[in-house]
Structure formats: structure tokens, C-alpha cells
């Protein structure tokens, strides 16, 4: 059974940006949102390797976007608690 391009696009694009609809994400500053988006982008590009390099990715993103590493970790902890 073949899927139409629109169906494939909708299933992949909506899942990719799903984190942007949460209450915790909307509370973040624009700078933190960019950092979180960057982390999710890395997670999407390497899903199998992401858990092994999560802390390293957090550290790199916090330096790149100049946001506290602790704040990024708190965001992910809050997201896990609300799910």
C-alpha cells in the first residue's frame, strides 16, 4: 500500500514540532526555545545515539546559545513530569 506525499509529510512534520505545543515550552524565553529546538533537532537526526550523548548535547547547546545548562535540564525534567 502506497502513501501519498501529503500523508507522509503530515506524519513526519507534526511529530517533529510536537514539543512546541506543550505548556512548559510556551513558558520559555525565546533564547531557551531556540536552545530546546536545537536539542530536538539533534535528537531527530540521531535518535539511536541520542540517549548516550544527551548530557554532552545539553552542554554543547548551553554554550552555543548561552543559556544555563541547569535550566535546560530543568525544562526536560518538567516535561517528563507533565507527560
Layout of secondary structure:
Layout: H1 5-16, H2 23-27, H3 30-45, H4 54-65, H5 69-82
Helix pairs in contact: 3-4
Report what the structure shows.
This protein is mostly helical. The longest helix is centred in the middle third of the chain and has 16 residues. It is built from 5 helices and no strands. The chain is globular and about 40 Å long.
Write down the secondary-structure element order. Answer: HHHHH
- In whole angstroms, the N-to-C terminal distance is 34 Å
Question: Which structural class fits the helix and strand makeup?
Answer: mainly alpha
Question: Stretches where pLDDT falls below 50 for ≥5 residues?
Answer: none
Q: Average pLDDT value?
A: 83
Q: How would you describe the oligomerization state of the chains in this entry? A: single chain
What's the shape? Answer: globular
- Provide the gyration radius in Å: 14 Å
Note the total helix count. Answer: 5
The biggest beta sheet, please?
none
Share in helix: over 70%
Task: Describe this protein with a few key phrases.
globular, 71% helix, 83 residues, mainly alpha, single chain
What does this entry show, briefly?
Helix content is 71%, strand content 0%. The mean pLDDT is 83. It has helices spanning 5-16, 23-27, 30-45, 54-65, 69-82.
